[in-house]
Amino acid sequence: MAMPNEWRSDDEYTQELFKHYLEKTPQEQIKFFTKHCEECNENCLISSFHLYSQQPKSLDESPTIEIICHLVWNKYYRVFGDWICNNCFKKWPSSYTWIKLQKFIDKVSGKNLKQGDFCMQSYNTCKNSNNRILKYKPLEEAESDTHHKRDLCKKCLHGEICHRTGNYYG
Predict the structure, then answer these.
(1) Residues 86-92: contacts with CB under 8 Å, at least 24 apart
(2) Nearest to 21 by CA among 8, 34, 10
(3) pTM listed for this prediction
(4) How many CB atoms lie within 10 A of CB 150?
(5) How many CB atoms lie within 10 A of CB 156?
(6) For 4-24, what is each residue's pLDDT tens digit?
């Protein structure tokens, strides 16, 4: 599988510009972040952003966080979360966890998220819908091809279409 080219844009993408992007329709988002590549002479979609807490001093400096564009939906960001049922206190992991993008960027801990900061999940056994996130982390690419469970994905349940990039769905 060919890997996409990594390139740096001369454009400045600020937090305000990123907030403006989130207010656009999916079609406008695609146009907004399509750039022409001089190397391959194709129009290419920017697939992720590296955010830094301060201006990097060199090109080798690691970003504070990476935002993968197609994992953003309705001002939420898809992560891997550990949940607990407030009824029976059973715990479960879920890669279908959506938290507010700003909470993800600010690295707010799972225990400090309030309802509204995340999309609620029901626990399968007792069907309780009032649960909480214990902790979360960025999604990691699956080592094998996994099936996207649309019946568990809040984005899919809201009628949006999840797209696949590499082994990520979002």
Answers:
(1) 86/128, 86/130, 86/131, 86/132, 87/123, 87/126, 87/128, 87/130, 88/123, 88/125, 88/126, 88/128, 90/123, 90/125, 90/126, 91/134, 92/123, 92/124
(2) 34
(3) 0.67
(4) 13
(5) 17
(6) 444 455 555 566 776 777 777
